[in-house]
Structure to design on (705 residues):
């Protein structure tokens, strides 16, 4: 879907992006991560030509991004930024309708699309006529994502989109966004400096430093064979724990072939929902000093043990 | 119990002025000084009524309550006092008229003016309290002046010296009034036509800011009269060199230099506010607009201008209020306008002729303030200025 080939961008003496190569497959959620100033935002902006490359080329679905006007290119790519950038003088509906209007969609089609997107983002129809000032940070970012999705672009560029909301809302937004992205099959390039966020969302992670992409691999691969000490250090000593956050207990229980027969947890056994992650489970075991917890979902009450944790990581990650 | 200091000062001032200062002045002729009459002597039936209304205002100011209701009540009471005041003056002037002495004049006394000033303070205090209900604020500010205007148009004030001066100069007054408006509005329109693009230029090319501001500030720094003087020579030379220009009215004196100076004065507030307005546009909104593929013109029209609009109009309002006053100086160099009436009055030492020029200027400035305030409110997009 995206092919970045030998792209460089210099600002004066500083090489913000230095001969970067990156391939992102159709439907993949790729995360660009690195310390601040590593050039990850610049690389993102090179793709929709908010920044023009000094050398190299960017292909989207096989065609060079320089073959059309930058505005035409940008209208076919969703763009979400940390500050959201909703237009304060326009309602939620008008904000979402921005790109469809540029495409001259008719009124009825726009209205239907806005309703569809609001529903998808879990915002009820009453939000249509609200102004950005009346939204919470989380709601505003949901509208920001809806606006980026409005004209149904195949590709989304997201620059730390969940960086300015509180941690609880951030996790909820990440989870919802991941589900929506999967369902719609959108290709996403996502910039963050937060390892936990990267691990939670990514199909693949590209680690950047000083304008260069050091390694682009799946989260599990990064943990098994980091390409050098910087990648290892940047991911942090708790990267393994973060990795556990990728697995829901529902999936983990199937992986570890836990008994399907309902078991009554002994009184006092800590309980988690099947939607919680293996990381949550481990954390709860540590906090309550036990080596097993009960996991509840709709049909059964299963047991999850400390030994199951390692079995999870043995699987494909 | 909470005090409202401005309201109390205004109401107290009005009451004291009405009781202690001359309400009307009876002059043997338009330029001679005359005998003062107190409100108690001159106003007849209206005097106790006015005293009652003003006393009520003082009490209200002493007993400030829930803001909106209090401010509306006090404001409309002040409007009532204003109307009563002029109704009383008009009525008294007709009663005092002496058919055997046609040259005699009845002028408005210091007491009446101070009373008006006090009521203005009350209205100002009420306006501040009514920020949250803008329509009520406009109503409160407009009702009193409207009452006075009605009395004026109904001929109720015809016995006053001021109106006699007007009657003597009906034709020139209309022409000078129109010229004044043309000078003020024309210069501001031209100033906006140039100032808004200048502001945009400074916003888009920040390196141009210091140069533009240098030029625009220079015009503002040089005193108006000096600037007028400075323009006389080059414009006169131009007219001499190119007779065509001269025949178009471009001369060292007259409306041309006045118009140019007023135009230069309008530039700073308009350009400055335009820049400030564009700076209030959240950078995220501009970034998002670019990222979504809005072209520069679309970005300007759909995002930046609507968001900057209230601040730009505030600049135009400042320029207009300022130029309505500055246009008086056109009278000094043969440029016409209400200034020529004022300066004629000064030359003749006829106070009511001065007032005939000065009062409409003050009225125009206040009216523009209120009207443009309302216009900004109507035209401002809903989400702007609400902390977004």
């Amino acid at each position: 879907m995206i092919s970045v080939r030998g792209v460089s961008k210099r600002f004066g003496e500083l090489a913000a992006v230095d001969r970067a190569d990156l391939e992102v497959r159709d439907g993949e959620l790729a995360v660009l991560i690195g310390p601040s100033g590593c050039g990850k935002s610049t690389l993102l902006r090179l793709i929709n030509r908010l920044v023009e490359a000094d050398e190299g080329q960017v292909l989207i679905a096989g065609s060079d991004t320089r073959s059309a006007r930058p505005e035409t290119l940008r209208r076919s790519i969703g763009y979400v930024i940390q500050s959201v950038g909703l237009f304060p003088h326009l309602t939620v509906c008008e904000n979402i309708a921005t790109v469809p209007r540029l495409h001259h969609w008719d009124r009825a089609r726009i209205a239907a699309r806005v309703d569809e997107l609001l529903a998808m983002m879990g915002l009820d129809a009453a939000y249509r006529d609200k102004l950005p000032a009346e939204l919470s940070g989380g709601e505003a970012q949901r509208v920001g994502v809806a606006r980026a999705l409005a004209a149904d672009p195949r590709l989304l560029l997201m620059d730390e989109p969940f960086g300015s909301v509180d941690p609880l809302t951030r996790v909820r937004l990440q989870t919802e966004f991941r589900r929506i992205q999967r369902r719609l099959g959108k290709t996403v390039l996502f910039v963050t400096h937060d390892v936990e966020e990267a691990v939670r969302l990514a199909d693949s992670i590209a680690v950047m430093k000083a304008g260069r992409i050091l390694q682009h691999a799946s989260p599990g691969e990064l943990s098994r064979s980091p390409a050098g000490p910087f990648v290892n250090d940047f991911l942090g000593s708790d990267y393994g724990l973060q990795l556990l956050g990728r697995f829901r207990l529902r999936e983990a229980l199937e992986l570890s072939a836990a008994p399907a027969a309902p078991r009554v947890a002994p009184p006092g056994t800590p309980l988690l929902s099947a939607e919680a992650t293996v990381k949550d489970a481990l954390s709860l075991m540590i906090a309550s000093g036990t080596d097993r917890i009960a996991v509840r979902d709709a049909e059964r009450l299963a047991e999850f043990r400390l030994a199951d944790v390692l079995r999870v990581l043995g699987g494909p990650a | 119990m909470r005090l409202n200091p401005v309201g109390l000062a205004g109401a107290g001032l009005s009451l004291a002025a009405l009781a202690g200062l001359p309400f009307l002045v009876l002059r043997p002729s338009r330029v001679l000084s005359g005998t003062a009459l107190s409100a108690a002597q001159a106003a007849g039936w209206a005097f106790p009524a006015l005293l009652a209304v003003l006393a009520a205002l003082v009490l209200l100011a002493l007993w400030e309550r829930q803001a909106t209701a209090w401010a509306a009540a006090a404001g409309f009471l002040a409007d009532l006092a204003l109307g009563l005041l002029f109704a009383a003056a008009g009525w008294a002037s007709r009663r005092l008229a002496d058919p055997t002495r046609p040259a005699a004049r009845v002028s408005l006394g210091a007491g009446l003016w101070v009373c008006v000033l006090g009521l203005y303070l009350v209205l100002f205090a009420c306006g501040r309290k009514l920020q949250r209900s803008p329509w009520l604020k406009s109503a409160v500010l407009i009702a009193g002046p409207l009452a006075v205007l009605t009395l004026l148009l109904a001929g109720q004030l015809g016995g006053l010296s001021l109106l006699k001066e007007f009657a003597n100069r009906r034709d020139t007054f209309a022409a000078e009034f129109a010229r004044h408006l043309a000078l003020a509005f024309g210069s501001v329109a031209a100033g906006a036509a140039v100032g808004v693009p200048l502001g945009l230029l400074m916003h888009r090319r920040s390196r141009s800011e210091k140069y533009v501001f240098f030029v625009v500030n220079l015009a503002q720094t040089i005193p108006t009269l000096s600037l007028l003087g400075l323009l006389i020579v080059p414009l006169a030379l131009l007219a001499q060199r190119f007779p065509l220009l001269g025949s178009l009215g471009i001369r060292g004196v007259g409306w041309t230099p006045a118009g140019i100076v007023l135009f230069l004065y309008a530039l700073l507030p308009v350009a400055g506010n335009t820049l400030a307005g564009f700076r209030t546009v959240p950078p995220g909104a501009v970034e998002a607009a670019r990222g979504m593929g809005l072209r520069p013109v679309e970005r300007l029209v759909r995002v930046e201008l609507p968001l900057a609009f209230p601040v730009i109009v505030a600049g135009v309002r400042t320029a207009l209020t300022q130029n309505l006053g500055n246009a008086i100086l056109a009278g000094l160099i043969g440029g016409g306008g209400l200034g020529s009436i004022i300066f004629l009055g000064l030359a003749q030492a006829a106070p009511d002729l001065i007032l005939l020029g000065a009062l409409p200027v003050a009225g125009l400035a206040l009216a523009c303030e209120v009207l443009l305030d309302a216009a900004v409110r109507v035209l401002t997009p809903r989400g702007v200025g609400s902390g977004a």
